Amino acid sequence: xxxxxxxxxxxxxxxxxxxxxxxxxxxxxxxxxxxxxxxxxxxxxxxxxxxxxxxxxxxxxxxxxxxxxxxxxxxxxxxxxxxxxxxxxxxxxxxxxxxxxxxxxxxxxxxxxxxxxxxxxxxxxxxxxxxxxxxxxxxxxxxxxxxxxxxxxxxxxxxxxxxxxxxxxxxxxxxxxxxxxxxxxxxxxxxxxxxxxxxxxxxxxxxxxxxxxxxxxxxxxxxxxxxxxxxxxxxxxxxxxxxxxxxxxxxxxxxxxxxxxxxxxxxxxxxxxxxxxxxxxxxxxxxxxxxxxxxxxxxxxxxxxxxxxxxxxxxxxxxxxxxxxxxxxxxxxxxxxxxxxxxxxxxxxxxxxxxxxxxxxxxxxxxxxxxxxxxxxxxxxxxxxxxxxxxx
Length: 392
Hints:
Its EC number is 5.4.4.2. This protein is of the alpha+beta class. The protein has ten helices and 21 strands. It has an 18-stranded antiparallel beta sheet that branches. A three-stranded antiparallel beta sheet has the order 12-15-14.
């Protein structure tokens, strides 16, 4: 068992959030942490599932009414989880927090160093290597990513970064959560992995992207080009087919759009498909379903096992919580989990940002590098930086 009682410390002080248009959760303090890998979430009789149930029971016994589980599950669910039961929590109106954030946003700080892992040459070489693999095996898509580390001249305030994230990105799934190493995970994901309320479930996968443009006519042209892109539609179809194959057996009803629609964020256009379903068994917990869906081809590739192995061989770092899932659930198996993209970890003077791109046979190294640059723009903006400033 890896559950730990909370100890007093800066990482566990302050306020934590997961906010969406569906429900928004504010929490404080850490009653207990769960580090056990979430692989066991697939089995209701596993050590992980028993541990979660026991943590809920202890929270109730200690006087926490209707406890919730919050946090993040890594990209690799065999790695330790970053889950916790907060000491106190409440659901609230997201608009109140967004308005307050707009008044407080801004952090400043001078960049004293930065590095991309891998660098531009290394990332482009990895894209070429992946494309070469497609012609020799079963892999049809692989999502390759990179980390941008930025060092500042003074400690970075995660609270201020979160304010800026909310002020600049009022839509999507905003989160600020404590990590076991003392840092914070901060971000705003555009992508819903799974929402569950009773028997009703919803997912909104994104695959296929284009950078937003400052000029309105150029921006409209970029969105139209994406909507007409056979490469991006193919990439999107791989994700939809995979989600249908996973969720279908558990649903009495499953509604999938015939074609994706456009979803716009501050930095990007995406192809997205809202999928709604009704479970055959309403008691099925969201964590079990979420861990069956995760990782989707949107952040891993297709087929999953082969693309994950290729990622292990090519990427020169461990993703950790990046491109995992982030959210919350209650004792009744309801909740909401988003894909952990457009995010950063904040630890003292260092922040780590993450971006990935879906590689298919029609990809080019130059365009995929440009896509990661564009995706980094969301979190760079929260630090008051441009891509050029972060690379200085």
